[in-house]
């Protein structure tokens, strides 16, 4: 083999080595580019993951702010965010408001809107890969899911506001119930004070009447019944008025009073048959007794 051929082979080998090196370099560069693409996709998926997480965090902060706003606006209303059933406790009426309310489905299993694994509209974090997230981002699916979260947040806020309005109404209702009781107690106190005043006036009237009756007792009634051996009073039954008096009524009067009697005095009539027979019997008996003597 001549030197020219050897040089050609050496050049060919060098070219082959260069070609192989360039091919390897191209492959390496391609691999690097592929890694860069993959890393770019990974970074983009991480950014979208962070973006979705930031959106959820903003919604979570918005819900926290809404709860704080509700807590500041509503007096005597403690909205316990830690409780999954959302016990809205009213200190006035002690109402446990809608523990399992159908109008306020805040997902009892989820507290503070943890919409990561349970919610069917956000299967993005655990069940979906980062590339799928990227494809979802490319199709604006994640944007739609975030809009669903916004709608859900708005509906929840409106429902909480409506519940707060109902609590205001119930508070006013309890206050309106307490007010008549307070007024009734005031009226009762007025009635009691009125009865107390009336009893005081009655006591004074009775005392004055008793004081007036003392001289009448010793100056009028005592001399009148001084020689009385029987009762001092007379009772007369009053006629019953039609459809007015259900019970029998009587009147009590002192005997020997200067006024006319309530019941007229019945005079004995000797012309009746019984009286005539009794009169004849008495006369015959007197005659027999006189004859025996």
UniProtKB/TrEMBL annotation:
Keywords of the record: Ribonucleoprotein, Ribosomal protein
GO cellular component annotations of the record: mitochondrial large ribosomal subunit
GO terms classed as biological process: translation
GO terms for MF: structural constituent of ribosome
Keyword Lyase annotated: no
Keyword Ribonucleoprotein attributed: yes
Family matches, as InterPro entries: Ribosomal_bL17, Ribosomal_bL17_sf
Family assignment from sequence similarity: Belongs to the bacterial ribosomal protein bL17 family.
Official protein name in the record: Large ribosomal subunit protein bL17m
């Amino acid at each position: 083999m001549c030197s020219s051929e050897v040089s050609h082979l050496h050049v060919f080998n060098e070219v082959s080595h260069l070609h192989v090196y360039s091919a390897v370099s191209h492959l390496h560069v391609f691999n690097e580019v592929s890694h860069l693409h993959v890393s770019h996709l990974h970074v983009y998926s991480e950014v979208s993951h962070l973006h979705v997480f930031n959106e959820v965090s903003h919604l979570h902060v918005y819900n926290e702010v809404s709860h704080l706003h509700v807590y500041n606006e509503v007096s005597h209303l403690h909205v316990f965010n830690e409780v999954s059933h959302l016990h809205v406790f009213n200190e006035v009426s002690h109402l446990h408001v809608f523990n399992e309310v159908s109008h306020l489905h805040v997902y009892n299993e989820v507290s503070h809107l943890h919409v990561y694994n349970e919610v069917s509209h956000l299967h993005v974090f655990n069940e979906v890969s980062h590339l799928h997230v990227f494809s979802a981002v490319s199709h604006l699916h994640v944007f739609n899911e975030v809009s669903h979260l916004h709608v859900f947040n708005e509906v929840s806020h409106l429902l909480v506001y409506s519940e707060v309005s109902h609590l205001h109404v119930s508070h006013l209702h309890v206050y309106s119930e307490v007010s008549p009781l307070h007024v009734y107690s005031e009226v009762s106190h007025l009635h009691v004070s009125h009865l107390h005043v009336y009893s005081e006036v009655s006591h004074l009237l009775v005392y004055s009447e008793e004081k007036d009756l003392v001289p009448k007792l010793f100056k009028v009634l005592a001399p009148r019944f001084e020689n009385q051996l029987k009762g001092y009073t007379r009772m007369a039954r009053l006629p019953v008025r039609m459809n007015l008096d259900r019970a029998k009524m009587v009147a009590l009067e002192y005997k020997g009073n200067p006024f006319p009697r309530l019941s007229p005095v019945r005079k004995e009539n000797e012309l009746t048959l019984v009286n005539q027979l009794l009169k004849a019997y008495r006369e015959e008996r007197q005659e027999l007794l006189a004859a025996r003597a």
